[in-house]
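User: Fe/B12 periplasmic-binding domain-containing protein, Fistulifera solaris:
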Amino acid sequence: MMFYRTVSTLAALLFISSSSDAATFRDDRGTVHEWDNTVKAKVAVRAGIGGVSLFHMGMTADQLVATWGIWGIRGSDFDPANPSAGSVFPELDPGPEEAAFLSGAVNLSPSCYTNPRGCFQMDNVTDLIPLKDQIDFVLFIDNGVDEKFLEVDAAGFPVIFVDTFYEYNENCRAFNYSLIDPSMCYGRSMIDIANRLEELAVFLGSDVDVNALNEQKQAACEAASALTDAAAQAHERGIRIKNIWLAVNQDENGTSYASMSDYDPIDLWVPRTLEELGMPLLHGDTYEEWGEITADQYFVDCEPGNVNQDCNGNTYFPVDFWMIDSRSSRLVDDNFKLLFPDRAILADQWWYTPMNDGPLSYKIIASYLTGFTERILAAENVQEATEECTPVDPKSIAHLKADGSGGLPLNAFVCYDRSLIQEEYLQCPDLSAPAPTADSASAPTAPTTASEPIAPTPSASAPTPTAVDGGSVPTSSVIATRVDSMIGALMMMLIAAIYL
Ligand SMILES: *[C@@H]1O[C@H](CO)[C@@H](O)[C@H](O)[C@H]1NC(C)=O
Ligand SMILES: *[C@@H]1O[C@H](CO)[C@@H](O)[C@H](O)[C@H]1NC(C)=O
Ligand SMILES: *[C@@H]1O[C@H](CO)[C@@H](O)[C@H](O)[C@H]1NC(C)=O
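Assistant: Predicted structure for Fe/B12 periplasmic-binding domain-containing protein:
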């Protein structure tokens, strides 16, 4: 708080002659938005990933005009009408406070917002139009796939895009959200998105309580630290982890069979996070057109049509612990174990992963990583595996490229190297001091520790420090973007001089 005020005062003194009082926020299409953030902006936003995250950052219900999409994560039994009943995914679903925050807003997805199969879009963009006078920004916090957002642009709303998939890079995404060059797209991990949403909350004039947020960051940092210790152990114990989604289908004779599809850990923010923190995640086949592996293919030593526990030692993926997308994780029951008698499944060594679902805040990072760590510590090595780890930096650009050249070959995994862990997660705020740490104040220009170029590093022209920021200065980037580069440098020197 004190830091915020001090910096604001500095900013005010320095830029008294500048043309505008507005804070700026450069979004992930490169659009620079302006807002006088002494005033609370009013917004429309997707409920779960946007609304709940911003609530954790300090947004209050008076800012939230409308929401769309499902409130919990897919596959959940969360009931917006009875939020205190809890849900099967307590780490990520809203609680009563989050639900109260969302329930005050206009619901633009009345047709689907309680559908656990998924609900990502507003029913009809025309429902947004009558709210135009009340809305300052429509927030598109998503992977860019919702084609209705071109209609929202066309209807003249100021849209702020926060990409949940890729770090901002002008050569990655076009203004219409299509990918120009996937080799220039690098996946974001949880903290990249949480940092971005924190900056957004500051820009929107929300009541960002630095002390409360620092407590959340402390919890996130402790959870990340425990997770990376558990990751080192998991490597020693030979545990292998894999991301999949499951299905139960019927063949031409009406007989049920299980199948699965996998994806590479560089593809989505949760596996990216786990890998950056050292977890042994198996890399995947890149499945074209949602290809799948059937139980017959998976159990290499079983006779087709007769998969069973006696032939489950040799499998297509040597997995000890499954990360199953939240929706299809609900398929796992005794009946499923007959269709898919995998050793890790039989031992209940699996957990759920949200896929472009669920909020992203320090609070969520803390709760989800803690739940994951508990389960990995309890997991045992059940599958023989001979693959050696691959010594690469899980943060390097080459590893993260979304064009198919990134990642590792099938069933390969990154070696545990404490010096290559994503330190961003492990920088705890200094709770004994009222001000955030000096580290992050100088973050806009601070190189990270690893020797290879780190993605997602902002390009030289990028004014926000998101990717390399330790995440504990909510205001610096917003302020940094107010100024041209020369004054910006001066500003940063001043901040560094005061806080280093
Ligand atoms: C959206 O609403 C408009 C106006 O009521 C209607 O003409 C249009 O067909 C609707 N679109 C969809 C996809 O339902
Ligand atoms: C989106 O923009 C890119 C680059 O301007 C263009 O090549 C592409 O055709 C556009 N896609 C659509 C669907 O309009
Ligand atoms: C379905 O049943 C027929 C007749 O018994 C058999 O020849 C065929 O292989 C079965 N199909 C599958 C997928 O098992």
